[in-house]
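Budget justification note: compute hours in this period were largely spent on complex prediction jobs such as the one shown. Inputs:
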Amino acid sequence: MQDRLKELQIEALEKVAAAADLKELNDIRVSYLGKKGPITEVLKGMGKLSAEERPKMGALANEVRDAISGQMEGKQKELEEAAVQKQLAAEEMDVTLPGRPVKMGSHHPLTSIIEEIEDLFIGMGYTVEEGPEVEKDYYNFEALNLPKGHPARDMQDSFYITEETLLRTHTSPVQARTMEKHQGKGPVKIICPGKVYRRDNDDATHSHQFMQIEGLVVDENIRMSDLKGTLEVFAKKLFGEDREIRLRPSFFPFTEPSVEMDISCKICGGSGCSVCKGTGWIEILGAGMVHPNVLEMAGYDSKKYTGFAFGMGPERIAMLKYGVDDIRHFYTNDVRFLKQFSVEE
Amino acid sequence: MLVSYKWLQEYIDLAGISAEELAEKITKSGIEVEGVEKLNEGLKGVVVGHVLECEKHPNAEKLNKTLVDIGSGEPVQIICGAPNVGKGQKVAVATVGAVLPGNFKIKKAKLRGEESNGMICSLQELGIEGKLAPKEYAEGIYNFSSDTEVGQDALEVLNRDDVILELGLTPNRADAMSMLGVAYEVGAILGKEVKIPNPQPKTSSEQASDYIKVTVEAKEDNPLYVAKIIKNVKIGPSPVWLQTRLMSAGIRPHNNVVDVTNFILLEYGQPLHAFDYDKLGSKEILVRRAGNGEVIETLDDVKRTLTPDHLVITNGTEPVALAGVMGGANSEVSSDTTTILLESAYFTGGAIRKASKDHGLRSEASSRYEKGVDPERVRPAAERAVELMVELAGGEVLGGIVEADALDVKPAVVSTTLGKINKILGTTLEMNEVKDIFARLKFATSVDNETITVTVPTRRGDITIEEDLIEEVGRLYGYDNLPTTLPEGPSTPGHLSNYQKKRRLVRHFMEGAGLFQAVTYSLTSAEKATQYALEKYEPVELAMPMSEDRSHLRLSIVPELLEVLKYNNARQNDSVAVYETGAVFLKNSDGELPEEREHLAAAITGLWESHPWQGEKKAVDFFVLKGIVEGLFAKLGLESQLGFQKAELDGLHPGRTAEIFLNGDVIGFIGQVHPTMQKTLDLKETYVFELSLKSLLEAETAPLQYTAIPRFPSITRDIALVVDKKKAAGDLEKIISEAGGSLLKEVSVFDLYEGEKMEHDKKSLAFSLKYFDPEKTLTDEDIAKVHNKVLAKLEEKAGAVLRG
Ligand SMILES: [Zn+2]
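Corresponding output:
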């Protein structure tokens, strides 16, 4: 009996060692350790043994069982590991293949520029005002110190619909309308983006429709130094902290004094290059102190109230910022163009 | 305005200030200098030569063999191709080793067997535009006058050692359209004196008034007209200094008399005109408005028909000049002219602008009159001109000046206070600093306590109010010197309006869904303006469109988005998904502005999904776009207010189009572009939607409110129904929802079958119904009660039966 158990142990251990997979191992478990297995079978003959031998044999049987199941456990781990390895090997794939593209559109570059400017001024306490694209001659011109007959309001330059209505040529009428709404009281602090229209033939630098964004501040003690400070904050935030600004005299009918703002050229750092036409400076916007006639027409006492205004072209800024060389790209909407602006900066 | 740095120095001392430094200063304080051009950039080695001999090249018909004295050593042989080269001429010679524009290096060469040691130059070869070269030298080499010294630097003789500043003048700075005006400006910037010419022409005993009488009928257009007479002039070429002055300012030299008028125009900003007195045909000048249909032949040999809008100079009967714009051919100064009638006049802008525009003639004269000339320079300019003419063309100036003077111009007197100046600029200037700035401008001032009163010379017609004075102070004090501050006073909260916030949300949603934002034109053709319009309106039309393609304001965005698709498809961008937000224009009654309504539109074509190596590919279809609309409404909290109803709309596929409803109102449409339209635009299957963004963003939404997460399980029942093919899933869904009552939480379609296992006019639609009670776990009996009601209603209202 003892020998038989030893035999069974050797036999089982050999089989366990040779087991090729988990199923085979389980079969071995069932056949040797199961209730109908040979060990149980052997133990059934225990009744014939003496009372002294019985516990010894029982102990031996348990030893054999433990040895087999211990071996099996080790083998099982080994086989499981092998199975995992096999699965992993089978599941290997080429990670360099492209992923499933996520559908993703993006802002038009002009919208990105406008929103960036809006947010910048919202942060400085401005609200965003909008107005009609078809305007009354009064708001587009007269209220802005451009009386009838003024050379700057030539019929040839504007798209008139009737004698008194036209497609606005700038976003400034929104300023006039907003001031009027405030009924001669301050403060007014607004930024006005929108589409404007001029009778220009479309080419690389002209477009009959384009964008403008203007700002206006009117209050009791607005100084030109405030304009300078505001524009400096704006320019540094939009174009970079290292950029310098300069104001130089200019002329607009609705501001006096009038200035244009240049920023130092990023390309050459101010030493002069083709982008800045050798001057080291790049023109960004027009600005000035609101003309007293404009204030008065909108119902403000120009003795008490002063204000500043500025305006710029998002196309120009986008062209400078991104190096776009043809204004028509903004309006043909070639997806190869639009896609380039999906990147958030 | 082109300003010669060398010429400017005749009026102001620029010692120690380079042209570049000057340009920078002018830009910062006054007028933008748009360009600084060195005329001799890349040029060297050109001398004055004397052509000693000139004969035909032995081997070349069109070449000449010359022997030229270049002032150093032996005369050199030069082969010259210019037709006008001749013995005895003084010419510009690019010697061996010289460099000409375009880095063209002159080397010793052999031309058809003959040695050539240099090149005789035309003005173009020296970098002067052909259209500026005097006519007689335009097609060949330039000749210096015979007394020009041989061997000297020809570039200096031609004043090419000059720098030209190009001033970009704003309309208010007409004063800088003259060398004197620029000199005053530079004088103010640098704090220097300005030397003004003081003409004192000698006159003969004869009186001009015996030769001419001047009458002005149109006194408003021409408040001052002065005439001078010069006899016995000899017309000829101007000296090189005058020719080069004109050329550097962009004016072509003609002859000594005409060149003087142009020189004075540049120097004083006062346009002059020289008539051939003998061709006038009378002893009279009469200035009047033209008659209707009156004709004048101008100097450019064009016959022009006039109207009473135009001002003419006449000899009493016939027009001899279109006032302030161009002279007449009949009285033109020519080589045989001997007596000159010189006109110096003050014309007001209006009539000149009209004539210049009507006839497409913008001359140096007209552009100055349009912007306004200085009335106080009319007489000095005439005196200076006759003095120069006599100097250059000989002859004698007749005594006196004949004039018609109705001018009433006084210098403007404007006051401001120191407080106001500092308040506007944000500065802390003292009165003496302000006074000094006006002294630099040569403006007279008087100070009374805080108030400064400034007498503005007539040359600065742009200064009329105190803000104008403040601008002068500001710019000459220097904007660089202004403090940098931010507005003080009550703080204002910056924000977007709700509408603006939501519009940004819509854009982000559309882009997250995979569409690119497009921006297209509002102006379109009459035809496209009304296509895909949500409502029938007559489109707003421009009075004077530039083209038929851009003549009307759009009533919808879709047509332009289809153009975007077409444009992209033509460039191999086959799959395109774009959206746009923008105004459409709804015409109101006459005299009122149109209503501008903001719309949202989208157009998609080509592949929607494309991941080829995993075999995933999906073309756009109706439900792709519909899903986006549904998602958008959901994002805005308007899901429950959204509805779709089958519709037939122009330009859209009749079987694949729906109207979009918000709270029962139509606010848009969605559908496939009609196959005929697709074909016209060369598009594949394309889907579009457009809706009133305004309606969407202004719709009332319930405030966001948390509902408890269910504690009890929900139970799902799936049903497959057989119904008529025409029955809309949406209608069935509605029946189910109504019948299901409060226990039915969700209904969704999960299958559609129309295949051969069905009768041909039937289809199978399968719905999943989710029942749920927040208070308890539903029993089978609870559900059976409602569910059977649902089935009964489906059969009763839609003839829908459970699929067996
Ligand atoms: Zn640069």
